[in-house]
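Sanity check

After download, print the first record. It should look like this:
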Amino acid sequence: MREITFVSNHALADYQKRIEDCIDKNGNPASMEVMGENSTAHRLRRYAADLPHAVTDNKDTYILVIVATDDPIELSGHLHTLINAANIFIIAPITARYYKNTPLFLIGIPKGGTHLLFELANTLGYTARRTTPEKPKGGEWYYVEYDNAHTRARHFFIESLYTSCFGMRDHPFAYTPTIFMYRHPADIVVSEANYYHKKGRTPFYGYFAHNDFCQRLSKLIDDPYLLGSIRDRVADFIPWLDFGNVVPVSFEELIGSKGGASDELREHAVWSMQLKLHVPGRADELATKLDQSGSDTFFKGQCGVYGDQFQEQHWQAFRRLNPDFFQIFGYSLGKEESFYSSRIKEFRERILHVDQPEEWPTYIENNQFLNHRILKHNNLYYGAPFGTAVADLERLSTDDDPVVKGRYVDEVKAKILKKYLAD
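Expected structure tokens:
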């Protein structure tokens, strides 16, 4: 058993009620531990000392862990220490990092099982909103850019930087937890070869329509004319692995035994997501809900299918490429090698680090709008006339000041226009 529940109020009575509910449902724990140093934590330690513990040698007897803190970063640190725990029940407080208070971004490699990533977010309790609005909402998941999850890092940070307001500085990515799914590159090629030639599925289906399966595999491994090599297509996603606010998770971790992998590994992956994103629930129950069958772009949902698909000529074609992209994702190149990434444990145990927005005002539109500049500060937007000092926007923006503010850019522009017409 791995389960976590959250209390909405930090009062001692709320914790006590949740502890009693846990014991009624699961029996007495083998032991109890209280994490935190605030007054509630100290009182909980005295309360827990008087509760009965199970006297048993049964290895399945659970441990009850209670976390009491007002600091979301401190809470995340405590929860992170429990990622590898088993037979555990956690009671923790709702903070600003609770999943309902924080949006989520999703990124996946094309034909890398992205639909399973969607299912993961939905199963964890997030609502699918997909295209990112001006102000993403907590408890909802989005794409980082445009209307698909296949956001290439190079495009987002290089090409989009030159076409977006103030060099993407206002984009919420840096301040938002993000899950990135990767997959064995050889299985990606097999999935592509079973999909890209189908009429109506892609605009370039005709490019593969007259090739048999073996020929499609060769072309998708290394095509110098249209799609480039598999290394080209995968390497653009490698930079996501290095961002502290990104949680990498492999397709092989989430597919479970029906996909030829491990249910235990899937449960462990789900549990780590719960602790990093502050999501309530029982890990084994959430893990069994993952189902990729609803996707019309899914091939087989299996791990290691490449073992029966590639001929020696295909492996030679892989080896002619720089194999670094296999190694960076933790995979081995070869028919007989394991389909699991060697970096699964590393990524699972990596601390999720989400920055807070800068407090200094950010210009998000430098174009002139009725002689005003539009800025963002502390999650609000401001319209300041050119020449206005903006070092302290909150102090300036009173009813009698020239600076107007609102929750959205369009709201600020409407107020500027109303003021302009009134004058």
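If your output differs, re-run the checksum step. Summary of this record's structure: Residues 362-422 form one domain.
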